[in-house]
Amino acid sequence: MDNPNTLKYADTHEWLRLEETGEITVGITDHAQDLLGDLVFAELPEVGQRFAAKEECMLLESVKAASDIYMPVNGEISAVNTALEDEPELINEDSFGNGWLFKIQPDNATDIEGLLSSEEYASSLDD
After folding, report:
1. Rounded distance, CA 127 to CA 125, Å?
2. Which end of the chain has a smaller Cβ tally under 10 Å, C or N?
3. What average pLDDT does the chain have?
4. Which residues in 6-63 belong to E strands, given as ranges?
5. What is the pLDDT of residue 127?
6. Which domains, ranges and CATH numbers included, belong to the chain?
7. Taking Cα atoms as reference points, which of 102, 123, 114 lies closest to residue 49?
8. C-alpha to C-alpha distance for 112 and 104, rounded to whole angstroms
């Protein structure tokens, strides 16, 4: 699957979408979910928790491995995708849609400008 060019990307395989409300929706890329394999558990952060950029904020477990998910920018968790508690496979099925992980109220929304474009992220996978 191609990485949508309307999103920003972290080198740790998270994608970000700035919403009209100023919130940022976060998920993992199709590449990341493919590497993990069939997901069986998502340990979501709690609404109201604050994290610094690059800090571990949640865990995904698959039949192959467990993987930490990192906060892409400084901010507070404003929502989580509770559907993942019962259906973590949504991430495998639709990583850029219904498989979103959480939303952030960022300390500074312009922080996402320093993240990767879809082309830069794709290039980083070739390294």
Report:
1. 6
2. C
3. 95
4. 8-9, 14-18, 24-28, 39-43, 50-51, 56-62
5. 60
6. 8-106 (2.40.50.100)
7. 102
8. 12
Copy the structure tokens of residue 28: 């993992």
Residue with tokens 């990583």: 95
Other CB atoms within 10 Å distance of the CB of residue 64: 12
Backbone angles phi, psi at 114, to 5 degrees: -80, 0
Q: For residues 95 and 29, is the Cβ–Cβ distance under 8 A? A: yes
Beta strand 102-106 pairing with 24-28: antiparallel
- What pLDDT does 26 receive? 98
pLDDT at 2 (0 to 100): 80
Q: How far lies 3's CA from each of 8, 43, 68, 116, in Å?
A: 9, 25, 21, 11
In contact, 44 and 65? CB cutoff 8 Å:
no
Q: What percent of the chain stands above pLDDT 70?
A: 98
